Structure formats: structure tokens, C-alpha cells
Amino acid sequence: METAFFNGNFIPKNEVKISPDDRGFLFADGIYEVIRWYTGFFYDMEGHMSRLKRSLKEMRISWPESDSFPSVAAGLIERNDLKDKPSLVYLQVTRGTAVRTHAFPVQPVPATVYASARSLSINPGMADRGVRVSVTEDPRWNRCDIKSVSLLPNILSLQQAVESGFSECVFVRNGFITECSHSNIFLAGGNVLYTHPESGYILSGITRKNVIRLAREAGIDVRETPFPANRLNDITEAFITGTSFEITPVTAFDDFIVNRGRPGPLTELLRTKFREELDRMIA
Ligand code: PMP
Q1: Active site residue 147
Q2: Which of the residues 13, 147, 209, 273 is marked catalytic?
Q3: Residues 100, 97: Cα–Cα separation, whole Å
């Protein structure tokens, strides 16, 4: 029986009852977080906590118990017997339940808080061989920095990419590469690594931040600068980053093949550094 966390209690997942008047259901008026459990510790809990609090603040959603998230996440791992399994914990906080009207409820209502955990290993084939991505106009709003559950533009764009045989789609806004539907992207031109700066056009990925740190520690010149989409043909390698798949090489953008379709040396170096750091944390 799967155990979930719902509004302050651990209960069987199939007993969670969310009102049809919940603003998450009606308006996607909520935020979320996803954190990875590496059989002994959560990856960068501090980073996830500060992004969670930032999303709540920017959305003006009040969850006074947000500091309880680390113990909620640990409770879910324990209660679902996941201690020895690489897993993901999902948390969603919505503005709560109220009669449907666009403006915030006049009488404040408690946030609806739901969290669950499931085992998910890194897909070794995908991480080793890399993925092909399609390039598409960024259809999203300009607050992509908020980890909001309003993901319709991401979903529609990714679905189109998947139906055309790609694993991810990379967005272009005003002629520059921003990020992907559910990952950040890094592009290498020789020994320089480019990634879009933090702004309303990207989600500040926890993996992205740590990869930038590891790359700089390794002496790589990382530039947080928007990369022009019309220079994609100049890149020597690329990779995407995210909680569920760490660092995954990109082997093609539409029909442009990168590095003869193989993961490049900077990508391989960073994947090794990332793994070595995890091994040190596990030890
Ligand atoms: N950008 C978007 C739009 C995402 O949905 C995600 C994954 N949630 C990321 C970037 C990567 O973020 P993280 O490394 O924190 O998983």
C-alpha cells in the first residue's frame, strides 16, 4: 500500500481526497518540487528548499509549515520502503479550496499540500547514449523561474517532439536557446560551456547550478549567456540536466548531428565529476 503525505498526515495514497474546488484542479494554481533520494541522502535539499520557498513567495501561497518538507520527504521514503532504492519525492502545494473565482479567496484558506515518493533509477541507456532533441519556439510565459504546476505549454511542446521521435524539445525565445520542456541545457563551443542565465525565461534547475559549480571547479569556462539558436551548427557538444536524469548528452538537434552523434569530452568529464561527488556523499 503506497503512503502519501496529505495536509499534515501520512495516509494511504488511495485515501487522498482533493476537492473539485481546489484551485490546483481548477486553475493549476500551485507549485511543486521534485527531489532525488540517493539511497542515504536527498540531493541538495538546501537548494530545493530555497527554490520551494521562492516559488511559494512569488506565487503568494502561504504554507507556514514549509520547513517540514525534509522530514515529510524522509517520512515518505521510510514508509514506502524506499531507503535502498534510488527514488523521487514529489511535492505539490496549491492555493487551497474555495468557490471558483479567479481572484484569490477573500477569506484566506489553507494551502493543499500533497507529497508522494516512487522509486526511479537513472535510465543508463539514455544517459550513456544521449538523446535527440527537437528545436521549437518557446510558447511559455515570462515567469518560467517559478516552479508552477501550470505546465501546459511544456506538455504540448514535448508531446509534439515525442510524436516526431525526439526525447526532449529545446525552446528558442527571441532567437536564443532558453531551456527544454523539463530540463536545462548546456552547449559547448570548444572549451567554453554556455547556458542561459537565471531569468524569467528558465527554471533555475538544481542540477544546473551544481553542474556549473562542478564545471568551474574543473577549470571549465562556463558562461551564463544566452546562446543564439542560429549558431547551433557551431557547437561541439551539448547536454541537458535535470533531477530525474542528471546529465544526459544531446546527440542531435532536429537533423543536425552533434559530435558525430556521440557524447562529447566535456559532457563525459562532468558526468564523471557528478558521479564522483555522489559516491563521496554515499561513502
Ligand atoms: N527546467 C524545467 C522547465 C524543468 O521542468 C526542470 C525539471 N523540473 C528543469 C529545468 C531541471 O530542474 P532540476 O535540475 O531542478 O530538476
Answers
A1: yes
A2: 147
A3: 9
Question: Ligand 1 atom 2: the closest Cα is on which residue?
Answer: 182
The answer to whether residues 49 and 64 belong to one domain is yes
What pLDDT, on a 0 to 100 scale, did the predictor assign at position 126?
A: 85
First to last CA, the chain: 31
pTM above 0.70, yes or no: yes
**Same domain for 74 and 130?**
no
Q: Which of 95, 119, 143 is the last residue of a domain?
A: 119
| Residues with pLDDT less than 70, the chain | none
- Give me ligand 1 centre to Cα 78, in Å: 25
Q: Are residues 80 and 196 in the same domain?
A: no
Ligand 1 atom having least distance to the Cα of 208: 14
**What is the number of domains present in the chain?**
2
**Percentage of the chain surpassing pLDDT 70?**
100
> pLDDT digit string (tens) for 39-72?
999 999 999 999 999 999 999 999 999 999 999 9
| CATH code assigned at 41 | 3.30.470.10
How far is residue 170's CA from residue 27's CA, in Å, rounded to a whole number?
A: 26
What span, in angstroms and rounded, lies between the C-alpha atoms of 154 and 137?
11
For the domain that residue 163 is a member of, what is the CATH number? 3.20.10.10
91, 119, 147: which is the final residue of a domain?
A: 119
Question: How far apart (Å, rounded) are the C-alpha atoms in residues 258 and 268?
Answer: 14
Q: How far is the CA of 33 from the centre of ligand 1 (A)?
A: 9
Which pLDDT score is estimated for 36?
97
pLDDT the model gives residue 283: 73
Q: Ligand 1 pocket, 168 CB below 6 A?
A: no
Give me the half-sphere count of Cα atoms (radius 13 Å) on the Cβ side of residue 141: 9
Each residue's pLDDT tens digit, 173-193 = 999 999 999 999 999 998 999
Would you say the CB of residue 80 lies under 6 angstroms from ligand 1? Answer: no
**Residue numbers of the domain that contains 81:** 3-119
Residue 196 Cα to ligand 1 midpoint, Å, equals 13
